[in-house]
Write a structure and sequence with these properties.
CATH architecture: Alpha-Beta Barrel
Structural class: alpha/beta
Helix content: 25-40%
Strand order of the largest sheet: 7-6-5-4-3-2-1-8-9
CATH superfamily: Metal-dependent hydrolases
Number of helices: 6
Shape: globular
Distance between the termini: 47 Å
CATH topology: TIM Barrel
CATH class: Alpha Beta
Amino acid sequence: MDRISLKIDLHIHTRFSRDAVNDFPDIDSACTRLGVDGYAICDHDTIDGLSVGKSSGLVVIPGLEVTARGAHILCLDPVEVVPSGLSISETVERIHSQGATAVLAHPRALPRSFVSIRQAGEAGFDAVEVANTAQIPFGLVMSWNRDLARTLKLPETGGSDAHFPETIGRSYTVVESESRDPKDIIRAIREGRTRAYGAGTKVSERLLRLRQFLSGKV
Protein backbone atom coordinates (compact mmCIF):
# COMPACT_ATOMS: atom_id res chain seq x y z
CA MET A 1 0.00 0.00 0.00
CA ASP A 2 1.23 3.49 -0.87
CA ARG A 3 2.04 5.74 2.06
CA ILE A 4 1.64 9.45 2.48
CA SER A 5 3.99 11.82 4.28
CA LEU A 6 2.24 13.92 6.92
CA LYS A 7 3.60 16.79 8.99
CA ILE A 8 2.03 16.55 12.46
CA ASP A 9 2.61 18.66 15.58
CA LEU A 10 2.23 15.91 18.17
CA HIS A 11 2.13 18.08 21.30
CA ILE A 12 -0.18 21.11 21.53
CA HIS A 13 -1.97 22.51 24.57
CA THR A 14 -5.33 24.30 24.54
CA ARG A 15 -7.09 26.56 27.02
CA PHE A 16 -8.15 23.39 28.84
CA SER A 17 -4.58 23.18 30.16
CA ARG A 18 -4.17 25.38 33.22
CA ASP A 19 -1.21 27.25 31.72
CA ALA A 20 -2.19 27.60 28.05
CA VAL A 21 -4.31 30.03 26.04
CA ASN A 22 -4.65 28.35 22.64
CA ASP A 23 -8.12 27.97 21.23
CA PHE A 24 -8.94 25.71 18.31
CA PRO A 25 -9.24 28.48 15.69
CA ASP A 26 -5.73 29.64 16.75
CA ILE A 27 -4.34 26.15 16.26
CA ASP A 28 -6.09 25.53 12.96
CA SER A 29 -5.01 28.88 11.55
CA ALA A 30 -1.36 28.44 12.55
CA CYS A 31 -1.14 24.88 11.25
CA THR A 32 -2.75 25.81 7.94
CA ARG A 33 -0.42 28.79 7.49
CA LEU A 34 2.67 26.66 8.21
CA GLY A 35 1.66 23.72 6.05
CA VAL A 36 1.20 21.41 9.04
CA ASP A 37 -1.25 18.61 8.22
CA GLY A 38 -2.54 18.10 11.75
CA TYR A 39 -1.87 18.05 15.44
CA ALA A 40 -2.36 16.15 18.69
CA ILE A 41 -4.24 17.80 21.55
CA CYS A 42 -2.24 16.93 24.67
CA ASP A 43 -3.61 18.94 27.58
CA HIS A 44 -2.27 18.51 31.09
CA ASP A 45 -4.09 15.70 32.93
CA THR A 46 -7.42 16.32 31.18
CA ILE A 47 -9.24 15.23 28.04
CA ASP A 48 -12.01 17.82 28.35
CA GLY A 49 -10.87 19.60 25.21
CA LEU A 50 -11.13 16.50 23.04
CA SER A 51 -14.89 16.83 22.78
CA VAL A 52 -14.59 20.47 21.71
CA GLY A 53 -11.91 20.42 19.05
CA LYS A 54 -13.17 20.19 15.49
CA SER A 55 -10.83 20.98 12.63
CA SER A 56 -11.91 21.34 9.02
CA GLY A 57 -9.36 19.69 6.77
CA LEU A 58 -6.73 19.05 9.45
CA VAL A 59 -5.97 15.77 11.20
CA VAL A 60 -6.73 15.96 14.93
CA ILE A 61 -5.20 13.22 17.08
CA PRO A 62 -6.69 12.85 20.56
CA GLY A 63 -4.11 12.93 23.33
CA LEU A 64 -3.30 13.69 26.94
CA GLU A 65 -0.16 14.76 28.81
CA VAL A 66 0.08 12.82 32.06
CA THR A 67 2.11 14.21 34.95
CA ALA A 68 3.91 11.16 36.33
CA ARG A 69 6.48 11.17 39.14
CA GLY A 70 9.70 12.23 37.43
CA ALA A 71 8.35 12.51 33.88
CA HIS A 72 5.65 13.84 31.61
CA ILE A 73 4.10 11.24 29.33
CA LEU A 74 2.00 11.76 26.22
CA CYS A 75 -0.91 9.37 25.85
CA LEU A 76 -2.11 9.19 22.25
CA ASP A 77 -5.71 8.12 21.67
CA PRO A 78 -6.75 7.90 25.34
CA VAL A 79 -10.02 6.36 26.45
CA GLU A 80 -9.93 7.94 29.90
CA VAL A 81 -7.68 10.14 32.02
CA VAL A 82 -4.68 8.47 33.60
CA PRO A 83 -4.23 9.77 37.17
CA SER A 84 -1.29 12.08 37.78
CA GLY A 85 1.36 11.32 40.39
CA LEU A 86 1.89 7.65 39.53
CA SER A 87 5.33 6.21 38.85
CA ILE A 88 6.64 6.28 35.29
CA SER A 89 6.18 2.53 34.83
CA GLU A 90 2.69 2.50 36.32
CA THR A 91 1.65 5.42 34.13
CA VAL A 92 2.80 3.62 30.99
CA GLU A 93 1.02 0.47 32.16
CA ARG A 94 -2.23 2.42 32.65
CA ILE A 95 -1.86 3.92 29.16
CA HIS A 96 -1.28 0.54 27.56
CA SER A 97 -4.15 -1.05 29.46
CA GLN A 98 -6.60 1.19 27.58
CA GLY A 99 -5.00 0.45 24.22
CA ALA A 100 -3.31 3.84 23.98
CA THR A 101 0.25 4.78 23.00
CA ALA A 102 2.84 6.12 25.47
CA VAL A 103 5.39 8.72 24.34
CA LEU A 104 8.06 10.00 26.73
CA ALA A 105 7.77 13.80 26.56
CA HIS A 106 10.82 16.11 26.73
CA PRO A 107 12.92 13.48 28.56
CA ARG A 108 16.07 15.59 28.92
CA ALA A 109 14.49 19.02 29.36
CA LEU A 110 15.86 20.35 32.65
CA PRO A 111 14.41 21.57 34.97
CA ARG A 112 11.09 20.00 33.89
CA SER A 113 12.37 16.44 33.66
CA PHE A 114 15.44 14.27 33.24
CA VAL A 115 14.60 10.62 32.77
CA SER A 116 17.42 8.07 32.96
CA ILE A 117 18.02 5.37 30.36
CA ARG A 118 17.16 2.74 32.97
CA GLN A 119 13.85 4.39 33.90
CA ALA A 120 12.85 4.83 30.28
CA GLY A 121 13.88 1.33 29.30
CA GLU A 122 12.05 -0.36 32.16
CA ALA A 123 8.83 1.57 31.53
CA GLY A 124 8.20 0.19 28.04
CA PHE A 125 7.53 3.40 26.10
CA ASP A 126 6.36 3.30 22.50
CA ALA A 127 8.29 6.40 21.37
CA VAL A 128 10.43 9.30 22.62
CA GLU A 129 9.72 12.98 21.99
CA VAL A 130 12.98 14.22 20.50
CA ALA A 131 12.00 17.72 19.35
CA ASN A 132 10.13 19.97 21.80
CA THR A 133 10.10 23.71 21.13
CA ALA A 134 10.16 24.58 24.84
CA GLN A 135 13.44 22.75 25.56
CA ILE A 136 16.55 24.88 26.28
CA PRO A 137 19.00 24.97 24.54
CA PHE A 138 16.96 23.43 21.77
CA GLY A 139 19.64 21.86 19.57
CA LEU A 140 21.69 20.37 22.38
CA VAL A 141 18.69 18.90 24.18
CA MET A 142 17.35 17.54 20.90
CA SER A 143 20.62 15.67 20.38
CA TRP A 144 20.40 14.22 23.91
CA ASN A 145 16.81 13.13 23.32
CA ARG A 146 17.66 11.58 19.95
CA ASP A 147 20.55 9.64 21.53
CA LEU A 148 18.12 8.32 24.15
CA ALA A 149 15.64 7.21 21.49
CA ARG A 150 18.38 5.44 19.55
CA THR A 151 19.77 3.76 22.65
CA LEU A 152 16.30 2.45 23.51
CA LYS A 153 15.61 1.59 19.84
CA LEU A 154 12.38 3.61 19.98
CA PRO A 155 10.74 5.84 17.36
CA GLU A 156 11.24 9.60 17.63
CA THR A 157 8.54 12.26 17.62
CA GLY A 158 8.41 16.03 17.62
CA GLY A 159 5.89 18.52 18.93
CA SER A 160 5.85 22.22 19.74
CA ASP A 161 4.48 21.83 23.29
CA ALA A 162 2.78 25.11 22.36
CA HIS A 163 0.92 26.87 25.15
CA PHE A 164 0.64 30.09 23.09
CA PRO A 165 -0.16 30.67 19.41
CA GLU A 166 3.33 31.91 18.47
CA THR A 167 5.01 28.50 18.75
CA ILE A 168 2.33 26.24 17.26
CA GLY A 169 3.84 23.99 14.59
CA ARG A 170 7.44 25.01 15.29
CA SER A 171 8.39 21.42 16.14
CA TYR A 172 6.70 18.50 14.43
CA THR A 173 6.86 14.89 13.32
CA VAL A 174 6.96 13.74 9.72
CA VAL A 175 4.98 10.50 9.68
CA GLU A 176 4.85 8.03 6.80
CA SER A 177 1.29 6.84 7.21
CA GLU A 178 -1.08 4.67 5.20
CA SER A 179 -3.79 7.32 5.51
CA ARG A 180 -4.83 10.47 7.36
CA ASP A 181 -6.79 8.42 9.88
CA PRO A 182 -5.43 9.09 13.41
CA LYS A 183 -5.23 5.36 14.13
CA ASP A 184 -3.08 4.77 11.04
CA ILE A 185 -0.86 7.70 12.04
CA ILE A 186 -0.41 6.34 15.56
CA ARG A 187 0.35 2.89 14.14
CA ALA A 188 3.02 4.46 11.93
CA ILE A 189 4.53 6.15 14.98
CA ARG A 190 4.69 2.88 16.89
CA GLU A 191 6.30 1.20 13.87
CA GLY A 192 8.99 3.88 13.68
CA ARG A 193 7.99 5.56 10.42
CA THR A 194 8.79 8.99 11.83
CA ARG A 195 11.34 11.78 11.86
CA ALA A 196 11.37 14.77 14.22
CA TYR A 197 12.18 18.36 13.22
CA GLY A 198 11.89 21.74 14.85
CA ALA A 199 13.23 24.87 16.45
CA GLY A 200 13.14 26.44 19.89
CA THR A 201 11.25 29.28 21.50
CA LYS A 202 12.82 32.70 20.93
CA VAL A 203 14.16 34.66 23.90
CA SER A 204 11.91 37.60 22.93
CA GLU A 205 8.86 35.32 23.07
CA ARG A 206 9.79 34.03 26.50
CA LEU A 207 10.31 37.57 27.81
CA LEU A 208 6.99 38.75 26.35
CA ARG A 209 5.08 35.91 27.99
CA LEU A 210 6.88 36.48 31.29
CA ARG A 211 5.86 40.16 31.27
CA GLN A 212 2.27 39.24 30.43
CA PHE A 213 2.23 36.66 33.21
CA LEU A 214 3.59 39.10 35.79
CA SER A 215 1.07 41.74 34.70
CA GLY A 216 -1.81 39.28 34.98
CA LYS A 217 -2.63 39.35 31.26
CA VAL A 218 -2.11 35.58 30.91
